[in-house]
Write a structure and sequence with these properties.
The protein is mainly beta. The protein has one domain. The protein contains two helices and 20 strands. It has helices spanning 3-15, 28-34; strands at residues 17-18, 21-22, 55-58, 63-65, 68-69, 73-76, 79-81, 84-86, 89-91, 95-97, 100-102, 105-108, 113-115, 118-125, 128-130, 133-141, 146-148, 151-158, 163-165, 168-170. The strands form three sheets. Strands 3, 5, 6, 8, 9, 11, 12, 14, 16, 18 and 20 form an eleven-stranded parallel beta sheet that branches. A seven-stranded parallel beta sheet has the order 4-7-10-13-15-17-19, with no helix packed on it. Strands 1-2 form a two-stranded antiparallel ribbon. The longest helix has 13 residues, at 3-15. It is elongated. The N and C termini lie far apart (91 Å).
């Protein structure tokens, strides 16, 4: 093998990429069951199913410096210094310093640390985030999940054992106007 072939083989082994397919056959739903979410449980934003043939994988031990832009799903188990742009993302035991721009769903698993803002349609948080979240539909905070920053979302589910240090506003936060609180007369009457 020449040096180029050795390099290509090393990259395939590091990333789990082999002849156009990924060796890992897990889906997020399998991770959900391992995390204690029973099979068949109804969850509006969980699980996200990743295609095993069409995903970018940053494996444990890998460190990426720079922006990641993928039209497929992204699985990060290593560390990233830079923004991530993708359709869906699964961060499992990852460390990310950068913003996430996710067009669909983000799953922040336990033992994951993110310093940066997250823009997504839906998010499940079991790890730690230091940054603001702007989520179009649903934010779900699972036990052990922690957000230090402001959350703007369509709706929020916060389970016992999760934490937020910041302001939370939902799509329905501003539906009450003064007319609904008009009880007639002055307070001092």
């Amino acid at each position: 093998m020449n040096s180029k072939e050795n390099f290509v083989q090393a990259i395939r082994e590091l990333t789990g990429f082999n002849d156009g397919t990924f060796n890992e056959e897990k889906t997020i739903s399998q991770d959900a069951e391992a995390a204690g979410y029973g099979e068949g449980q109804e969850r509006s934003i969980y699980p996200v199913r990743f295609s095993t043939e069409n995903k970018t994988h940053i494996s444990a031990g890998m460190a990426v410096k720079g922006m990641i832009q993928s039209k497929s799903n992204v699985l990060v188990e290593g560390s990233v210094q830079g923004d991530i742009h993708s359709e869906n993302v699964l961060l499992r035991g990852a460390e990310v310093k950068g913003n996430l721009h996710i067009s669909s769903k983000a799953d922040i698993c336990e033992n994951t640390k993110i310093v940066g803002n997250i823009f997504a349609e839906n998010i499940v948080v079991s790890g730690h985030i230091k940054g603001n979240l702007q989520i179009g539909d649903t934010t779900a905070l699972k036990p052990g999940g922690y957000v230090e920053g402001d959350i703007k979302t369509g709706s929020i589910i916060s389970e016992y054992g999760s934490g937020i240090r910041g302001a939370v506003s939902t799509e329905h936060s501003c539906i009450c106007d003064d007319v609904k609180f008009d009880l007639g007369g002055a307070i001092n009457e």
